[in-house]
Design goal:
- The mean pLDDT is 89.
- By secondary structure, the chain is mainly α.
- It has a single domain, classed as Hemerythrin-like (Four Helix Bundle (Hemerythrin (Met), subunit A)).
- Bound molecules: fe (ii) ion (FE2).
- The site of fe (ii) ion (FE2) has 6 residues, from helix 3 and helix 4.
- Fe (ii) ion (FE2) binds next to helix 3 and helix 4.
Length: 140
């Protein structure tokens, strides 16, 4: 999965957080490929959970600062993802802080949920906000 310029929202902080998410997903894909995912999936899910919450909060802060009219809809999109992701997180206690291996299924599912959602969300919802910001900046 590669971050390309056409996914740019036009805000460096947001773009670099998106790139970080891509790189984590790529390490998950690599772990699935080399069969080490069982041992890494717990840490990956934990990281994604924290990082995605942080990232959403940053985006939402940015939207409020710029009086973005699409704020509510965008936030609802974020919340839908959080609800989806929390289902994956329910598997975590079973991994007992990295003591027990996770499963291949959990790895593949995490990959699917995050990849499908993220690509669609960045390409449509985040970029919509990016376009709005660009028009604001022109007016300033
Ligand atoms: Fe977003």
């Amino acid at each position: 999965m590669e971050w390309t310029q056409d996914l740019s929202v036009g805000v460096d902080t947001i773009d670099s957080q998106h790139k970080e998410l891509f790189s984590r997903i790529n390490s998950l894909v690599a772990a699935i490929r080399d069969h080490t995912c069982k041992y890494k999936i717990g840490d990956i899910v934990r990281f994604l959970d924290e990082y995605i919450m942080f990232h959403f909060a940053e985006e939402e802060k940015y939207m409020l600062q710029h009086n973005y009219p699409g704020y509510a809809g965008h936030k609802a999109h974020h919340n839908a993802f959080i609800a989806n992701f929390s289902e994956l997180k329910q598997e975590l206690p079973k991994l007992e802080g990295g003591q027990k291996p996770g499963s291949y299924d959990l790895s593949v599912e995490t990959n699917q949920v995050v990849v499908d959602w993220i690509l669609d969300h960045i390409a449509k919802v985040d970029r919509e906000f990016g376009k709005y910001l660009a028009t604001c900046e022109k007016r300033e």
